[in-house]
Design brief:
The chain has 306 residues and is of the alpha+beta class. The protein has 11 helices and 11 strands.
Length: 306
């Protein structure tokens, strides 16, 4: 029997919105396995979704640069949020994006690339020495199209092209580039707000889809539904799931009466040609990096005993 800590219960509660005792029971029934506990709660109708609340720990900036049919996003991390307001650090992030546009998105290749008479790695070291904080080029990604545009949107921008979240979207089309760019920015804003996991269902991880099917089926069976009804419930549930996580099927944030796919189809007349979204990248600062959380009550209690 796994030892279920209060922190585990707290994390499960934050991830599912279920009650504390239900979360404790779910963890106990599943030997402390968080994913299994989420599914257990969902099967009993006690949780709405299998989403974990991401805890952003890293500071710094993301950046996006586009040039016609190509665009890149980068993330450069620092120790504190204050650094994001520093001109030197902002220049370093923009430099990283410009270098990635030229040499590609391999982090080591970016570091080795020359920026003037020094390497980008040396430029980082120089900036660290001047500001006094450690800095890390964490990641970079690129998109390109043969014909069309790569558009961008930066949320929480501190200056043009740099902010807490950067998105690029690739639109393939022979239509008017200016109209495509305007549409592309709208789609990029949608990606920032809705955080799709894939373009369409075919792009989803089969294991994730299989897990979703199992949760829907087990929940229906637990309600005593016959097999033929269970199949229909699973099919309907998957359609709803796809509308939540697939870009082209999500309700468009600029007109939620249409899906993104429908909005793109309607825009083809104005653009002057067929439009196809071939990819998107969304970088939110620090996503996936966790910082140890302090227990304030425990710290106060420990201090009181000194």
């Amino acid at each position: 029997m796994a030892n279920i800590s209060a922190q585990m219960v707290k994390e499960l509660r934050e991830a599912t919105g279920a009650g504390m005792m239900d979360c404790k029971a779910a963890l106990g029934e599943n030997d402390g396995n968080m994913d299994a506990a989420v599914d257990w709660l969902r099967k009993k109708g006690l949780a709405k979704a299998a989403k974990k609340a991401g805890r952003v720990a890293a500071e710094g900036l993301t950046g996006a640069v586009t040039k016609g049919t190509k665009g890149v996003v980068v993330e450069l991390n620092s120790e504190t949020d204050f650094v994001a307001r520093n001109d030197l650090f902002q220049g370093l992030v923009r430099m990283a994006a410009d270098v990635a546009l030229s040499v590609g998105t391999d982090v080591e290749a970016i570091k080795a690339a020359k920026v003037g008479s020094i390497s980008f790695a040396d430029a980082i070291a120089d900036t660290v020495a001047k500001i006094g904080e450690n800095m890390t080029l964490r990641r970079a990604a690129a998109l390109s199209v043969g014909q069309g545009v790569v558009a961008s949107y930066v949320h929480g921008a501190v200056i043009d092209g740099l902010g807490k979240m950067s998105v690029i979207v690739a639109l393939e089309s022979t239509g008017n580039a200016d109209e495509l760019a305007r549409l592309g920015k709208q789609v990029a804003m949608h990606v920032a707000a809705s955080n799709p996991q894939a373009l369409d269902p075919s792009g989803l991880d089969p294991a994730v889809v299989s897990r979703e099917k199992d949760v829907l089926a087990d929940k229906a069976k637990a309600q005593g539904k016959p097999a033929n009804v269970v199949d229909k419930i699973v099919e309907s549930g998957l359609k709803t799931y796809y509308k939540e996580v697939c870009l082209l099927e999500q309700p468009f944030i600029h007109d939620d009466k249409k899906s993104v796919a429908q909005a793109l189809k309607e825009a083809e007349g104005k653009v002057g040609g067929p439009i196809k979204v071939t990819g998107f990248v969304r970088y939110a600062l620090g996503e996936g990096i966790e910082r140890p959380e302090s227990d304030f009550a425990a710290e106060v209690a420990a201090t009181a005993k000194v």
